[in-house]
Amino acid sequence: MAEIRQCPKFQIFLSCRKLKDTDILSKSDPFIEFYEKDKQENWVKSGVTEVIDNNLNPDFITNFEIDYLFEEQQYLKFKVYDSDDGSNKSHHRNIIGETECTLGEIVGSKGQQLIRTIKHHKKSTGNIIIRVEQVNENSSTLMLQISAKDLEDNSGFFHSFKPFFYLSRVTESGENIRVYCSETSKGRNVTWKLFEKSMKDLSNGDSSRPIVFDLYDHHRSGNHDYMGSTEFSLNKITEEGVKQFTIINPKKKSKKGYKHSGIITINTCQIIQNYTLMDYIRGGCQISLMIAVDFTASNGIPTNPNSLHFINPSGMNNYEQALFAVSDILLNYDSDKQVPMYGFGGKINGLTSHCFHMNFNPQDPSVKGMEGIIGAYRNSLRYVELNGPTLFAQFLGKIIADIESQRIDQMNQQYFVLLILTDGEIHDMAETINWIVRGSHSPLSIVIVGIGNDSFNNMRVLDADDTPLIDSKGNKMLRDIVQFVPFREVNNSPQRLAKEVLAEIPREVANFFKLKGIMPNAAIAAPDYDFDRSYTISQVPNNIIGSQPIPVPSGKGSNLSTMPPQPNYQSLPPQGNPCYAPPGQYQTVKAPSNYNQAPPGYGQPPPGYGQPPPGYGQPPPGYGLTGSASHQTLAPQNSKSGPPSSAGPYNTLPPSGYDYVSPN
């Protein structure tokens, strides 16, 4: 039977600040309509707040409850209106402004609070504050151990007594629903194993509700003999201190001399609070994404339209769709958006590598956000020659060793998700299993997406849904950390892919920290923001989006659409930090009102910046052929003469700002 997974629920609370006043004789009477995007990409109205009279800074009492699906991007829209007649239902109203976001953006924000500028006709008309809080449900788990003595043994010569029991939850209508079955034991005096069961399963979270204990004698045929029953409640055990309960067989109760069919004792009854992914995120836990991409020759030459790596000008290929679908969700929970990207199975400078940095930065494989991920993937296809074979162990070893070097404890909570995109079977299965078993002890989940039409039989083994992985030393994996999905099995749908591969991540995160005895930290308070104060870019909180001052290079005007001159701009600053312009003073100016990221072009070099000109990396005609000298090294920066002779190969690119020239 398939498991029915219950989604956590969140309540959405809304406030507005500095709304534009659309009334003439009084202040606006605002209310908000709340919309969700459905499966057909249509906006569906889900609720509306009350109207608050004459208030440009309203805090609405009405809240909205929504299911939270970690593996899906849930798009939300908020429309703020001014009511002309005091009603939130009539058409006598004026639009003040609106905004869109995702539920993941709100949940992933500090303090689970997101502040957005609302706009009408592209003009700012105020700010909306969106807060969420998880609906409080009983997520506790009960640890129980039960023993029994003086059990009635009715077995004969050809059968040994093998007692076991069921626990049943009593519904409000008085029906018993079985929720647990013990292992079998032997003898009249037994102690069954300690077990764990959720409070919701046992009693629907009600500590006073009866739990029924039914004792049976096990038979291989399945026709087990009923021995008797008793019942108890958690309150009776924990509050009244009752630990022993008598088993009674109703069929024998009226017989002369019958006392009971045994006595059970509750040896252990411990209620344990279970925490969710949201509890850890509220306390500051970061979910960090890492990516590994297959560059083996079986993908096909990227310039061929039939290649899995073909860059289609009219849309994304399957690799790009998978990168976008998974990254788009996980980046919500990563504050710095820095994503290490590794390639495997490709040839660089004539050498095959099974673990290379896709940004070609030998010091740091990280790229910034979604643009960096897609950009690094596309750029790498220009310089990497597809080769093989398909090997996982080398990059897995590097990544897992890096995670093991991180300090993970109560005050330093971080979890990693590794996304692997591959088109075929791996050829180092034993070594890969060794690393996965080792990685199961680390804060790591591995998501493998199969691209193309291969059978992927080995990947299904790594998924370990049916049989846990065991390494070459006989060690069994501590946790099931691998999720595999072939892209074709979700009909090449990015949304379905994300849902399939990310559905288990919340449980895996919570289980890891539970195993390590790490509880969520106290919830981080939302940043306090003064709407009347001027901020520089380094001071604006990540979740404040609106019309804010930002520093720009002196003399460059009020927008950062151009970069400083190339010789003085050797590296791009992280988005959100002042850029390193030529010497001079910074001036603080107002950014455009649509500042929800850096202005167009900011954080991106001018066209061609950092890219070699045609033929760059190859000697120009005649280069190295003057006289008997062999000019094969780079000229000094800005040199206008030929480089000195050298026997070294000319196969690497110089840093930006270096010239290459033919000999005089």
TrEMBL record:
A Pfam family reported for this protein in Swiss-Prot or TrEMBL: C2
CDD domains in alphabetical order: C2A_Copine, C2B_Copine
GO biological process, one term: cellular response to calcium ion
Aminoacyl-tRNA synthetase keyword on record: no
Compositional bias annotation for Pro residues: 602-622
C2 domain ranges (all copies): 1-116
SMART domains noted in UniProt: C2, VWA
Molecular-function GO terms, alphabetical: calcium-dependent phospholipid binding
Annotated keywords: Repeat
InterPro entries hit by this protein: C2_dom, C2_domain_sf, C2B_Copine, Copine, Copine_C, VWF_A, vWFA_dom_sf
Residue numbers spanned by region Disordered: 542-664
GO CC terms: plasma membrane
Composition bias type Polar residues, residue spans: 556-574, 585-597, 627-644
Family the entry assigns: Belongs to the copine family.
Name of this chain's protein: C2 domain-containing protein
Protein species of origin: Stentor coeruleus
